[in-house]
């Protein structure tokens, strides 16, 4: 592999470009591509909003005739299969580029290695693995869904100087300042879905949208772990469900009786239902684990008539209800992946954060530490900078006013 410092410089530019559309390319990865001729960038692009057209075809179109004999820098191996658009490998071959430099090979079995093989068979020099670690980080959501069949999970915590994430009975408590909160909204804008427990949904009544001017339309799908359908109809989430999607994850034990032909509790039936948001795959039915534990914020009555009334009211408000054990993230996350959700932001509360940490299903931790003191009736944080779980590497520290952000990431 004949890699030069110039290759790393142009690949770094492609990786920066790829981040422009994170969370906005549907199920396709956000890929960056730059076309370089005689040391000058003559074409550049990122995967379009919605996932098409791909970065390579846009960059080649911008370069035009200057692409012939040039070098293309691509953050992900060019696709080699026919989908809704022709393969990008074919477009690169047709353009006459002389060399293609790739950061990350694609784990998708329809592509993996085939794109590179097509290019080499056409006489194009191909070098792969340039700035691979940085490339994998920029593609983390896509790679996680492809290789682990679940979304990439980021846990965000804002912790006070005395180790608290809130105060009992007081709803939302401002821990970080406006600069840090703006950064969190930027994170939401590049994430497919955001998740909280029902205790947080009731106590804080959060909106969970992006409120950065110009990015409001990039608000993620909002998910609430709510085993007994306790989400109030007067909550901001329910009142805005027709504007930004809300999914309530309920226990199988509150499944409508009318849905069970045999009248048996759904938690002991074989799982022959479609995965959340997806078609049946023909796989062997598996027993669904029963709901155990209690919702944050209490457990309201599970009287069948009352439950049916709450279910109907939430659905009438535009809330989608799915039945998938809320407190078994190892089941929930693959179900979310079937819906095309590649990245998930877990924002609270403390019990929900602990749930994902104990399951070993957190890939990145964003830990904000603020000088605010919560004091009495504080809700203790599930972790702080002194007890980050093993397997996480510290990726850096940034300051937002008086608030410190430390980011930790688990290796692939």
TrEMBL record:
The parts of the chain that form a coiled coil are none
InterPro entries, per database record: APOBEC/CMP_deaminase_Zn-bd, CMP_dCMP_dom, Cytidine_deaminase-like, DHFR-like_dom_sf, Eubact_RibD, RibDG_C, Riboflavin_Biosynth_HTPR
EC number(s): the record gives 1.1.1.193, 3.5.4.26
Chain ranges of the CMP/dCMP-type deaminase domain: 5-127
Q: In which pathway does it act?
A: Cofactor biosynthesis; riboflavin biosynthesis; 5-amino-6-(D-ribitylamino)uracil from GTP: step 2/4; Cofactor biosynthesis; riboflavin biosynthesis; 5-amino-6-(D-ribitylamino)uracil from GTP: step 3/4
* CDD domains reported for this sequence: Riboflavin_deaminase-reductase
Give a yes or no for keyword Calcium in this entry. Answer: no
Where is the stretch described as Disordered?
261-306
- UniProt keyword Oxidoreductase, yes or no: yes
**Keywords, comma-separated and alphabetical:** Metal-binding, Multifunctional enzyme, NADP, Oxidoreductase, Riboflavin biosynthesis, Zinc
NCBIfam families the record matches = eubact_ribD
Q: Which family does it belong to?
A: In the C-terminal section; belongs to the HTP reductase family.
What is the role of this chain? Converts 2,5-diamino-6-(ribosylamino)-4(3h)-pyrimidinone 5'-phosphate into 5-amino-6-(ribosylamino)-2,4(1h,3h)-pyrimidinedione 5'-phosphate.
Name used for this protein in its record: Riboflavin biosynthesis protein RibD
Q: Which species does the entry assign this protein to?
A: Rhizobium anhuiense
């Amino acid at each position: 592999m004949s890699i030069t410092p110039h290759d790393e410089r142009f690949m770094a530019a492609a990786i920066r470009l790829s981040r422009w559309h994170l969370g906005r390319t549907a199920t396709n990865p956000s890929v960056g591509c730059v076309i370089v001729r005689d040391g000058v960038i003559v074409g550049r692009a990122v995967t379009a909003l919605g996932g098409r057209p791909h970065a390579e075809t846009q960059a080649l179109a911008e370069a035009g005739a200057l692409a012939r004999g040039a070098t293309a820098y691509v953050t992900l191996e060019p696709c080699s299969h026919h989908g809704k658009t022709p393969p990008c490998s074919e477009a690169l071959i047709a353009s006459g580029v002389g060399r293609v430099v790739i950061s990350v090979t694609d784990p998708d079995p329809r592509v993996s290695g085939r794109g590179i093989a097509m290019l080499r068979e056409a006489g194009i020099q191909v070098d792969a693995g340039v700035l691979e670690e940085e490339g994998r980080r920029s593609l983390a959501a896509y790679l996680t869904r492809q290789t682990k069949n679940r979304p990439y999970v980021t846990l965000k915590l804002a912790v006070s100087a005395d180790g608290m994430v809130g105060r009992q009975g007081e709803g939302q408590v401002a821990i970080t300042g406006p600069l840090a909160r703006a950064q969190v909204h930027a994170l939401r804008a590049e994430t497919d879905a955001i998740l909280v427990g029902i205790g947080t949904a009731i106590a804080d009544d959060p909106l969970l949208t992006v409120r950065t001017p110009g990015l409001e339309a990039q608000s993620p799908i909002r998910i609430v772990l709510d085993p007994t359908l306790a989400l109030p109809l007067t909550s901001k989430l329910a009142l805005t469900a027709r504007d930004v999607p809300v999914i309530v994850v309920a226990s199988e034990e509150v499944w409508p009786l009318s849905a069970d032909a045999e009248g048996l509790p759904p938690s002991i039936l074989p799982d022959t239902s479609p995965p959340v948001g997806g078609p049946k795959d023909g796989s062997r039915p598996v027993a669904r684990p029963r709901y155990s534990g209690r919702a944050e914020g209490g457990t309201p009555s599970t009287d069948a008539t009352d439950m049916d009334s709450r279910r109907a009211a939430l659905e009438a408000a535009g809330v989608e209800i799915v039945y998938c054990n809320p407190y078994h993230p190892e089941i929930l996350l693959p179900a979310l992946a079937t819906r095309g959700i590649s990245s998930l932001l877990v924002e609270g509360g403390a019990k929900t954060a602990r749930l994902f940490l104990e399951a070993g299903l957190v890939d990145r931790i964003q830990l904000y530490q603020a000088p605010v003191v919560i004091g009495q009736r504080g809700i203790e944080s599930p972790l702080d900078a002194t007890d980050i779980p093993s397997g996480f590497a510290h990726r850096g520290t940034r300051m937002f006013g008086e608030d410190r952000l430390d980011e930790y990431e688990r290796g692939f």
